[in-house]
Prior knowledge:
- The protein is an all-alpha fold.
- It has helices spanning about 15-45, 50-55, 60-95, 95-115, 120-125, 125-140, 145-155, 160-165, 170-190, 195-200, 200-205, 210-220, 225-235, 240-250, 250-280, 285-315, 315-340, 345-355, 355-370, 375-405, 410-430.
- Helix 1 packs antiparallel against helix 12 (about 210-220).
Amino acid sequence: MSNVPATLFTPEADTPPHVATMLARKAAAAAAAGSAIEYYEFGVYGYMAAVIGPLFFPGGNATASLLAILAVFGSAFLMRPVGGIVLGWLGDRYGRKAVLLVTVIGMGIATGAVGVLPVAATAGIAAPLLLLAIRLAQGFFAGGEVTGAAAYVAESVPAGRRGFYGAFTPVGVAVGGALAASVCGITTGALSAQQLHDWGWRVPFLMAIPMVAISATVRRRIDESLAFARSLRESEPPKAPLKEVLDAHVPALVKVFLLSLGQNMGYWVGFVFMNLYLTTYLKYDKTTVFWIMAFVSLTMAVTMPFFGALSDRLGRRTVLAAGFVAYAALVFPMMKLMNHQNIGLAFLAMVIVALPMPIVQSVGYPTYAEQFPTRVRYTGMAFSFNFGAILGGGVTPYIATALIGKTGDLLMPAYLLAGGAIMSLFVLLRVKETAGHRAHRSVRLSVAK
Length: 449
């Protein structure tokens, strides 16, 4: 095992307070801007799955079309570890800033490309193949996005505020989800079913183009992270960061993998799949459900900095444990409440079942960053988190849909989410508390004003 402390972050003692605050705010804004693009795309695809499924996978069986479109959805997650390895290597060798600009531009262009794809009625088998190719490209760039953003923030803020500022990475996640739900809600509400089928489904995907232009502008204005700049002064960057991670940091890899599996189950089952649950299985109005999802996402975004700051005071483990316990306790009764065919009760249930999300999302990312040293942090986070995302995010919605189709039990997703949350609680027992750990102060770093 490496004797390098796992939390080599900013030398805040050597940085003037006003400069540290300015850098922290810029880092948080840049992280949020990029993660919003990532989760806007994944959110739009999930929300529109029931609409675009028959367009790319036509047939008489609606469940089969939905399973096919969810399989393509999951394919993007298979590319995330590949993107994490390649982009993590670039980030650990050459810096975070350039890679984070590449990821946000790549995801945005790929998302917009979905909006101009031909459908099966005009292109035959080429339509789903093109969709699959674009999804794989999206997964590649996403593999270096949210983890790279989380690493960048952790390396750019004072130790005692990493939870608070680190929470703005998942704020972008929630805002991206809210934008996706809002755009889908406006589109489905303003267009007829025929218009939505003919061309309206393209609108949410094309909206990614102006969004990526804004996000790229924000990221062009950031500086390299303080900790990475200091790391280059102390030693040469790693030539093979993945090998170094696998040689010296396997326990950290396993912990982050298992925790991210539970976190991703919470988001993709507890939020994105709930859209399918409410619209496809319980037959609630799509537009109404989209607006419910937008409201819940924005509520999550507002509360995340609070829970991040709380983890700075109470510790990461305590706050994360509360979130996972809430997942396991709330998902069964709230899914049953949704099934009363009352939109008011469904709205209340969705708000309650989403309560653990801002807790786990906001505290998870800073925790993952704190498990690896600076020189291999990007690679370590991207590799472990993205494998957790495959099982928790890419595979779980498909498995949940398949199990419902096979058993007829609409509570199957609840079993998956509760199981993932309980597993994460056991993993937390082996995670050392890292909130408030300070960087070495032996190296002074001058920061230009």
